[in-house]
Amino acid sequence: MWADLRADAGARLEGSVLDVGAGTGKASLTLARAGAQVTALDPSAEMIAVLGQRAAQERLAARVRLRQGSFEDLDPQTEEKIDLLVSAQAWHWTDPATRWVRLAGLLADDAMAALVWNGWHLKASHHETGRVEAVVSERNRRWGTAVPVDTEAHDTGGGWTQEPVLEVPGADRLREGRRRVYAWDWQMPTRHYLELLGTTSRYRLLEQGRREDLTTALGQALGPTTFRACQTLLVEVMAGR
Predict the structure, then answer these.
(1) Among residues 81, 107, 89, which one has the least CA distance to residue 238?
(2) pTM surpassing 0.90?
(3) Quick one: CA dihedral 22, 25, 27, 28, positive or negative?
(4) pLDDT digits over 161-197, tens only?
């Protein structure tokens, strides 16, 4: 995936590169290893500190500029224009009312933005997917929530680059680009999968008691041994005109 992204970015890697929601630096460090000068943006001081330590350990500190803050802190009128923006598993945390206009205003001419997502769906050959669906559906009905279920592939159809919101006034400098999906088999102990679910926004937003109830029921439905899924990585690329 990163090799394809580097090929797509081309000479843009030599310009201004921004990683939105950098976290502990998986994307930032990968881009820095490719020779880019990266600004790593994240609202968490703790995450930024870890990223700084990792960059220093890899002798990449000179290529990674640490910046604590949110995407909403960036003012297109005063910020340096961006040649390449990457947001890996973080774009959904940006403000939906302003993110596209802000992105359009921040991108330089012929810039590129790449949104990266991890996804997965349970392998029906290994799990009773109907039972899993019933667990989630029953609780959604009872709680009035809309927690998705990991039994269907969500890597086809519409994506960020196909949203109508891209056509709001001020975002017309964005144009739709390519979408790539990478897939491979994935397995882990069920308890590790449930721990992973607890770190995702769809579960973190649940009240703690509901979250614990749902994960317990999912564990019973999945079985105690090995969770198996098809792991996917979705990359959506758009560009400034």
Answers:
(1) 107
(2) no
(3) positive
(4) 555 455 555 566 676 666 777 878 888 888 888 998 8
